[in-house]
Amino acid sequence: MEQKRLFPQGRFEMINKAVYFPSIKTLAIGDLHLGHEFTVREAGSLMPATQMHETKKDIEEIFIKLKKEKKNVEKVVFLGDVKHFFSYEKGEKSRFLEIMLLVTDYVKREDVIIIKGNHEKWAKIADKRLFDYCVIKDIAFIHGDVEIDEVFDKRIKTIVMGHLHPAVSIRDPHKIKREKYKCYLTGEYKKKEFIILPSFLPSVEGAVVNRHVSNSHCIVPVKNMIKFRVFVVGENEVFDFGELRKLVE
Predict the structure, then answer these.
(1) 3-state DSSP of 40-79
(2) pTM of whole model > 0.85?
(3) Average pLDDT, stretch 88-94?
(4) What residue ranges define each of the domains in the chain, with the CATH number in brackets?
(5) 199: which DSSP letter?
(6) How many CB atoms neighbour CB 208 within 10 A?
């Protein structure tokens, strides 16, 4: 996986569905959408209630990998939409606290930062304050549904966001079979390096960006986004699939 075309080598590392920044010892995690499976079950689907187990397992594996590689994590930033229900739902607090108990085995509670997503309608979740954005040195973290003037300050080099839930659809050469994969998108917009994370939601791949994506879904216009590079999340590594415009169906 080669990133030096746009980003300085070693500036960040894609690990499963999260991004680690060694210079600021920070791990960024995209949309969790805790409780998503219950909305599906309420609609009549027999989806098994495995989201929490799989989410916690994926998060823990990332921390274990970083620890084995002796890469310290001092801060964790959740990029919004940590919960799925738009309104209040009685189980959301306990689900969020389960995630916090896991994460705070590795970092201090005050060093867990929660960005407010479009699924969060309050200023807090449990006892954690929600922020519109967060800046650590020259890296800004946002949800991505609303453009925030402050993160386009000249001192900011990189903007990290979620919200879009990018995925790509890949067909075999005979056009018989089609598979869908979560992916990252990286590129430049308004002279800033952008990293768009896949959702952390285990049961849904996301929005297929090589078929159709609307300007209403993301602060980065489609005309810019199609020049972004696609990095597909595999089982044990991330694969560079080149520019999005070369994958458009």
Answers:
(1) HHHCCCCCCCCHHHHHHHHHHHHHHHHHHCCCCCCEEEEC
(2) yes
(3) 66
(4) 13-246 (3.60.21)
(5) P
(6) 18
